[in-house]
Amino acid sequence: MSDRLRPESESTLAATAAELLSALRETPPLTHCITNTVVTGFTANVLLALGAAPAMVDIVDEAGLFAGVASGVLINLGTPTPEQREASLEAVAGANAAGTPWVLDPVAIGALPVRTALAHDLVAARPTAIRGNASEILALAGLSAGGRGVDATDTPDAAIDAAVALAVRHGSVVAVSGAVDLITDGHRVVRIANGDELLTRVTGGGCALGAVMAAFLGAARTTGTESLVAVAAASLAYTVAAERAAMRASGPGSFAVELLDALASVQPHDLAAAAHIEERAL
Amino acid sequence: MSDRLRPESESTLAATAAELLSALRETPPLTHCITNTVVTGFTANVLLALGAAPAMVDIVDEAGLFAGVASGVLINLGTPTPEQREASLEAVAGANAAGTPWVLDPVAIGALPVRTALAHDLVAARPTAIRGNASEILALAGLSAGGRGVDATDTPDAAIDAAVALAVRHGSVVAVSGAVDLITDGHRVVRIANGDELLTRVTGGGCALGAVMAAFLGAARTTGTESLVAVAAASLAYTVAAERAAMRASGPGSFAVELLDALASVQPHDLAAAAHIEERAL
Amino acid sequence: MSDRLRPESESTLAATAAELLSALRETPPLTHCITNTVVTGFTANVLLALGAAPAMVDIVDEAGLFAGVASGVLINLGTPTPEQREASLEAVAGANAAGTPWVLDPVAIGALPVRTALAHDLVAARPTAIRGNASEILALAGLSAGGRGVDATDTPDAAIDAAVALAVRHGSVVAVSGAVDLITDGHRVVRIANGDELLTRVTGGGCALGAVMAAFLGAARTTGTESLVAVAAASLAYTVAAERAAMRASGPGSFAVELLDALASVQPHDLAAAAHIEERAL
């Protein structure tokens, strides 16, 4: 997979996203998640609704093996028990050995020492993608002490320098979630202004997006799409579904239900029609 | 409880299922679940909706004791942490000592070594029932290396020989989930063609059925119903509720919500009216 | 914060509850939960819907630190793994050192030895509030062997002596959940007759209330409201939302969804209008 993307217009990006969504549904990527206990069920449901095949394998002596056969891997640090910490390192080694793309979600690092140390070990293993809110990306880049939990206390654009630095340092695509998502590979930056504020009122609204990125990266291996585009496609599909869900929801409870229905019903051609994307060279 | 069932027509089986559902609601069976972190909440909600009393006790030095006082026990191997592995062995010992019926759900065994070893240890303790998809049942019988996770890559009828072999070897009722559920005690086979494809789009759709089987087996102790019939009754009640839910759902998110409502509202007499059951001697 | 409350009428209590709900939404209290794997997602969603900021930090070497910066802490013993047991003790030490209010929910103690021992250790550290059903409160006070799991097998009023004894012994507000919630600080008793039976058909219906109490206690630090009133306000807001949800629900599945929507939409002035509260000196 090349790390270089030919200049292309936003509409081309949305068109590629549409193709990736079709590819994902045709051959559901086996998406291996090591994620926190708060959001495991919701994350699996998001992947199933979208059309991917989730598997939550966070057991030592299984995770490494499984990462080798999976299409994509998510490592989310929300509740990093000792078992999960060891399984995460094992999974990353297995993924890297097999060339499986993997996503690091450094939940709430900065103030919390155990996950912060683990995140630094993991990022050194060069994740295909890193997803976090601005506070987490700043903390991972060493530019901030982090937020006060899973809240973003900074806006994505406040983290652009940190995101670019991480992308260059580790060869990763870095996605900063917020009202406008910011995604960079260190050379170009994509901004996506889709989504809805209700995503912040559902636990796992951000965590599940990391899993969707792993699924899209898995699908992208088959189509030969580069990682920046795959990560942007995941964000676009997810946030367009969120917009459709928000139109039907009466609050955060019904929004979560509608989001799953929308992830299942959103069609590739809907992505281009709804996309609010901007892509620029840095 | 006898392991022999008098020959009876399908309508008799549905009638017995209806009686069991009434009995379960009259005296909610305390259903002890050791299950994976992905589906604990959904599983408990399925049991509560149906009318059973769930308790998720997966702690060493508690699980064995609790299995002795529970009406039925589920051991699901979806995320078998060291704590859960030890608690599972303890619970099975407690259940067997007390005569509590228990269900083994060997999630994703075959390719994953830790749970595969545990499943073989557990099955040797003679579960009252074993529930899995075709790949898992084939793997447990030693006839396949298993699927690629929780997906069934084989149809239930592809696993009939494996199911019968397991049933005979361990004295268990074996239930193979799929588009048509197959349930056997090694002497007879019941096929149930109820349900809906949306069950495969909700995480825990299969895992929660294992818990429902444990609840029905608990209720069956009181009524003296044999295990094959109790397991079939659980499948029937669950899949009939799923059909009713699917009629009202707009996608996988709303289906999960409607399934819980349907499990609460389905009445004993609905089972016979909706049943697509076939029962045969082997 | 004073442990003494000036005599005030029920309408004053509802008015204070309304003010607290406003304060909570204006400055979302960071609510640190160590809770069981069955209800983590639902609990976080309840807090987010209401307007609080949940963080589920149950990792050793993080939990103590985090309890020091959180606004309120919940320790729920539903699935007390070794990691969570150590993290709970650490969190309580951190909370007490920082003056952070904390809630103990002794789920299913009495019959289950590991959590019962832990609950006795924790209660000795003088929780700001204790929430449980009647069986659990009786067991914690040493007056009963406990229920058969998370069911209440006794009514709240059967536990009034136990609740008062615990309140006096440990300087805690004690809340006994049931059809009529009973809340006491050992000097006065508040009874709240709001809520709906559907809360008992959703897993986490009680556990999430413990988290809401931690959030209200966090908000109460800012407003200077005393703990008895904060705990009563949490119960009132939660049960009034439950009543509104029940009016729109068709069963336990849709009730859980509607409850989240109602927690987000319930307004401070709705509390006084709907309150069925009684407050008396002992």
From TrEMBL, chains A, B, C:
User: Which coenzymes or cofactors are required?
Assistant: Mg(2+)
Gene name, Swiss-Prot/TrEMBL: thiM
The record ties this protein, via CDD domains, to: THZ_kinase (cd01170)
- Annotated membrane-spanning segments are none
The family line of this record is: Belongs to the Thz kinase family.
E.C. number(s) listed in UniProt: 2.7.1.50
Catalysed transformations (reactions): 5-(2-hydroxyethyl)-4-methylthiazole + ATP = 4-methyl-5-(2-phosphooxyethyl)-thiazole + ADP + H(+)
Pathway listed = Cofactor biosynthesis; thiamine diphosphate biosynthesis; 4-methyl-5-(2-phosphoethyl)-thiazole from 5-(2-hydroxyethyl)-4-methylthiazole: step 1/1
Protein name, entry field = Hydroxyethylthiazole kinase
For the ligand (ATP), the binding residues are: R131, S177
Alphabetically ordered keywords of this record:
ATP-binding, Kinase, Magnesium, Metal-binding, Nucleotide-binding, Thiamine biosynthesis, Transferase
Q: Which GO terms describe its molecular function?
A: hydroxyethylthiazole kinase activity
Quote the NCBIfam families the UniProt record gives.
PRK09355.1
Which Pfam families does the protein's record reference? HK
Which residues make up the binding site for substrate? M56, G204
Q: Which domain of life is it from?
A: Bacteria
